[in-house]
């Protein structure tokens, strides 16, 4: 049977992708950011997943105001890299896992989460920057991401966005869905976005290290408490775009301790300010 | 019964909810069109003519022409959509975000390097943080011409 063995959490700041694409990773500004991912790059070589279930948000890329799904699962065979206004990032296209994705879609909908099923969409920096951070630079044509990816897009652009509690419960349904898949697959679930940041208005540039670190503590040790944080606390404390952190709760909810198993092992924790407008956070948790 | 909107008392912040989205529908959809290279070329060649192809209000068009992102947001724009204008202009997200504070690019960049804007005094309207209305504009860029 398929099993979720680990969860990876990371910010997905577009400027991080741009720094990689433009060869700026060795600049003093960027060095500490990328140093925080050295561990993860080696870790993922040693713990190579068969499939990544990647929770992210679309930034008005595949979904305009014409269509705003709260939770959208990608069931396509492959996904183009989006042109977000400055040409597509020079990274390989993303290969999906249609069979597992369709299985998860069916199982999760039967557990009362009404997902939107997407058979064609372009993926933006929300999905490709985490892949770049964990797998390093890849040639856009000759290269390939090391494993298939199931994109799972969450609406955090137009309010109301799903609550942290809803996301956490959804993660539990995803874990059950994966475990009911017959083939033996090592699945990682990634939660991306955040941490504190605000990209708009006179309050742009807000960063809250205390909130972020308390959130990391809770996510690791007391995810129930993290799931109880209301929207307004993210907005007030972590900036209007800090709301992206609800997506981390989907990945956390999919860990086995939430279903009565043993607490996960914290393999890595990293926090850095700033990357462009944003606080960068990164965790790796392994099921034990 | 009115909707619960607990986020209206956060200073310097506009939450993009269903009401803002209705107001900004065409403004944001215009922005989406800039994800195609050929549209970026047409927009840059004649911004006014390109904007006139969209069912935007005159004020929304003026706000885009002025590249005033705070104005665009008041009129229903959302930053992730508006970012397509910035990308078309070759601006980074940091330049776009900074432009809404009244700081110069350098001032804003330095604020971020020094740990970003504090939440202290910036949680509720009526406190005394640097994002409060009575403390705008914040930097020397916004004070030019005063």
Label the overall shape of chain A: globular
Largest sheet of chain A: 8 strands, mixed
Distance between the termini of chain B: 44 Å
Give, in spatial order, the strands making up the sheet with the most strands of chain A. Answer: 6-3-7-2-8-1-10-9
First-residue to last-residue Cα separation of chain A: 17 Å
Q: What structural class should be given to the helix and strand makeup of chain B?
A: mainly alpha
The CATH class of chain A: Alpha Beta
- Please give the CATH architecture of chain A: 3-Layer(aba) Sandwich
| Strand proportion of chain A | 15-25%
User: Care to count the β-strands of chain A?
Assistant: 10
Structurally, how many domains make up the residues of chain A?
A: 1
Task: Please give the CATH architecture of the largest domain in chain B.
Answer: Orthogonal Bundle
CATH topology of the largest domain in chain B: Protocatechuate 4,5-dioxygenase, Chain A
Major sheet of chain B: none
Tell me the name of the CATH class of the largest domain in chain B.
Mainly Alpha
- Integer average pLDDT of chain A: 97
Q: Would you count the extended β strands of chain B for me?
A: 0
- Tally of domains of chain B: 2
The secondary structure category of chain A is: alpha/beta
Written account of the structure:
Chain A is an alpha/beta fold and 288 residues long. Chain A has 10 helices and 10 strands. Chain A has helices spanning 14-21, 31-35, 38-46, 98-110, 125-135, 164-179, 209-221, 223-227, 231-238, 246-253; strands spanning 3-10, 51-56, 71-74, 78-79, 94-95, 116-118, 149-154, 186-192, 265-275, 278-286. In chain A, the strands form 2 sheets. In chain A, strands 6-3-7-2-8-1-10-9 form an 8-stranded mixed sheet, with helices on both faces. Chain A is globular, with a radius of gyration of 17 Å. Chain B folds into 2 domains: 18-89, Protocatechuate 4,5-dioxygenase, Chain A (Orthogonal Bundle), CATH 1.10.700; 101-141, no CATH class. The mean pLDDT of chain B is 94. By secondary structure, chain B is mostly helical. Chains A and B meet through helix 1 and helix 9 of A and helix 2, helix 6, helix 7, helix 8 and helix 9 of B.
């Amino acid at each position: 049977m398929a099993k979720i063995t680990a969860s990876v959490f990371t910010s997905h700041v577009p400027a991080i992708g741009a720094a990689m694409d433009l060869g700026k990773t060795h600049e003093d500004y960027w060095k500490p950011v990328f140093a925080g991912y050295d561990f993860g790059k080696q870790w993922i070589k040693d713990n190579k997943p068969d499939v990544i279930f990647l929770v992210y948000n679309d930034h008005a890329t595949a979904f305009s105001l014409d269509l705003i799904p709260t939770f959208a699962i990608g069931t396509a065979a492959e996904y183009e890299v989006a042109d977000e206004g400055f040409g597509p990032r020079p990274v390989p296209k993303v290969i999906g896992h249609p069979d597992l994705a369709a299985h998860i879609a069916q199982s999760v909908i039967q557990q009362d989460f009404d997902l939107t099923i997407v058979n064609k969409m372009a993926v933006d920096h929300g999905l490709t920057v985490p892949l770049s951070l964990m797998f390093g630079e890849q040639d856009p044509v000759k290269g390939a991401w090391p494993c298939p990816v199931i994109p799972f897009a969450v609406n955090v652009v137009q309010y109301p966005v799903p609550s942290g509690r809803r996301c956490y419960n959804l993660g539990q349904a995803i874990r059950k869905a994966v475990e009911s898949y017959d083939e033996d697959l090592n699945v990682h679930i990634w939660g991306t976005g955040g941490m504190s940041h605000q990209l708009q208005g006179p309050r742009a540039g807000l960063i809250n290290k205390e909130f972020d670190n308390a959130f990391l503590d809770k996510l690791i040790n007391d995810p129930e408490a993290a799931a109880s944080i209301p929207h307004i606390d993210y907005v007030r404390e972590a900036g209007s775009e800090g709301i992206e952190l609800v997506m981390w709760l989907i990945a956390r909810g999919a860990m086995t301790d939430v279903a009565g198993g043993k607490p996960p092992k914290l393999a890595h924790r990293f926090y850095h300010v700033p990357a462009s407008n944003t606080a960068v956070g990164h965790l790796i948790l392994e099921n034990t | 019964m009115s909707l619960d909107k607990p986020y209206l008392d956060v200073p310097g912040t506009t939450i993009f909810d269903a009401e803002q989205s209705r107001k900004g529908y065409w403004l944001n959809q215009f922005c989406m069109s800039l994800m195609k290279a050929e549209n970026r070329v047409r927009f840059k060649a004649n911004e006014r003519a390109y904007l006139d192809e969209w069912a935007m209000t005159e004020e929304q068009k003026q706000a885009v022409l002025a590249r005033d992102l705070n104005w665009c947001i008041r009129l229903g724009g959302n930053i992730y959509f508006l970012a397509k204008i910035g990308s078309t202009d070759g601006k980074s997200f940091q330049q776009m975000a900074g432009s809404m504070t009244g700081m110069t690019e350098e001032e804003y960049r330095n604020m971020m390097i020094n740990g970003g804007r504090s939440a202290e005094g910036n949680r509720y309207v009526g406190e005394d943080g640097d994002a409060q209305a009575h403390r705008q504009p914040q930097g020397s860029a916004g004070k030019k011409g005063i």
